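Sample log: mRNA export factor GLE1.
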Amino acid sequence: MPAESLRWDTLEALKSSPKGRLKYNPDWLEKGEDILSGCNEAPSLSPLSGLILKRLNMSPRALQKTCSLGSASRDPSPGLSEEAPVSSTSPFPSANAQPTPLSSPLLVPRLKKDTKQQIVGDEDSAPDASDDLSPVTNPIPPPTISLLSPRATQMEGCIRICEEKHRAKAKMELSLRQELQEKLVASVASRESEQLKRFEELMELKQRQEYQSMRDMMDRETQESIGRQEKLKEEHKNRIKILNLRLREAEQQRLREAEFERQRQVEGRERLRALNAIQEEILQLNQLLEPAAPTQSGPSPDLTSYSTRANQLCSQVSEVVRMTAEGEFPSVEDMTVAERALHEMRSLIRVMQEAAAQAQEKRKKEQEEEEERRKMAVLQAQQEEQKKSAALSAKEKARKKGLQTKAEQSTLKWYQELQDSANQCAQAFEGLNNTKDIQTKKLRMELQKAATIPVSQISSISGSKLREIFDKIDKLLSGRSVVSGGKSVSTSQHPNGLDFVSYKLAEKFVKQGEEEVASHHEAAFPIAVVASGVWELHPKVGDLILAHLHKKCPYAVPHYPPMKDGTSVEEYQKILGYRVEDGGVEAQDSFLKRMSGMIRLYAAIIQLRWPNGSKQGPAPHGLNNGWRWLAQMLNMEPLADVTATLLFDFLEVCGNALMTQYQVQFWKLILLIQEEYLPRIEAVTSQGQAGSVTRLKQFLESSLRSRQIPPPKGQLSSHFWRS
């Protein structure tokens, strides 16, 4: 609209006109009210209406297009733009304009209808502004034309412009609201979609968790069922073991009872044979007491009293034999009665012979003595035969049961080699012992003190003190000077000084075991660890220790020396280890105490090693020698009281080390001792010697019950060596 800038002037003119005081409301269009209802009065033609009248002779379509003023104001058609520049965009009246009234009343309604159609068309063509809105064609042209007044036309144009602006603003706001709503819907849809995804993921997670929990529960139940099955299997195995042990114990008990019954039968038969022999001898002796016929040499002595007493003794023995003839074996008391009767009968014979010798002539006396000697020879031959048969039966029994009465040849050879080596060493320094030189004697005394005093000072007070003693002994054996009694002494001062010191040192170690360890069992470990360290650095001293130990305690080999022909009882007891003095042989308790001390020292030596030694490799006399000693001890027939004592002391000191080293094999050996060897020890042990057997039995039972042997008391710990 070319004159759009003058719209406000037009509005002011309308407001000042008497009928133009209009109140504009933007809601009119929405409410459908007719905005120009108050302006429908007869208009006057504007100066431009001439252009419209020129087209009255045109076709109805051209007239209809010309009448579409409102539409041409926004989107002019090509027809109007070609004819003339007259349009509703210049609705203002000109000064030269002459009002040309039109008598046709149908023009205003037609224009109103076209205006409404154009508004609707604008709304429909809003998405596509390039499309032209054409007025509705009417094939029947109106007979007359009624035009609006210029002011009404201008007013209508302004109103339409306002409406277009409001409509555009409304469309823009509507599009913004639609876009906002679409964004909101899109965001809500996206959020809901994400929430749906999260919900689905949560549900899947819950399903997986439930599935995993079910699998875990099934796995736990499976493991529990497997554990229960294993536990049942283990319980079944334990029950089988217990039943097997009970069956074995029952079988062993039956065998022991059978062995005991067999032994009782054998002993009963032996006693019965001895009783028969006693009866036979008594009857033979009784015949000697019968009164002899008188001879020409003189009257025979009166033997009535002797014969009466002999008959009484024969009656006693016959009564005992009669009691045993009923199917029972003679008891020990019966044998005592029979032996007492035999002894008394022999006494009667002796007294009778003495009386006969006094009463008869020398010839008769010689005859009686000859007869007596002959009978005694017969009895001795019978006794010797019985002894030989008993020895043969014992050897046969030992051979059948796999036990020996003496050590193996290899062990005896080793034992003899050690003794020969010790004797050679003693012969080497014999000149030092038998010297008459005063200086040499003093040197011998100083060397002996330097060798024995440090061994006497060994104790478990502290590790540093023990190391000082060991270093002093090592220096002495290495030929270096040591201080003893305020004087410096060395083995290099005499050619045989080293042999003398080694011999005396080994002798002192064994003597400490014989005396100190026998009284205080815990002292075995510090003495043994020093002896082991010296043995490792100076092997000759170790061999001398073994030689002295075997000489004083042959059971440490183990070796049971047999009694040789021509050896006295006292000499044989010395060989067995007893002390024989002017007052006689030492008591059994003292003997066992000394043997126990030396065995404890030996058991400690084989399991210990000097901790600060520099040599590598196995110990010079290790645990394998303890296993050898124990095995050979069990292969030999037990000795009453001695075997039980030594086994207990050895196992109490060395049992824990052997258990750690040999494990299952060691427990088999312990079980063998309890089941087979201990009954043999009990069989040779009398009632007064049952203490050592009881201690050994309790030790074996406790060890097998707990499957553990505790470490010995007094064993040196790592804390001791830091003290």
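Observation: Residues 59-139, 293-299 have pLDDT under 50 and may be disordered.
Observation: The chain is about 70% helix and 0% strand.
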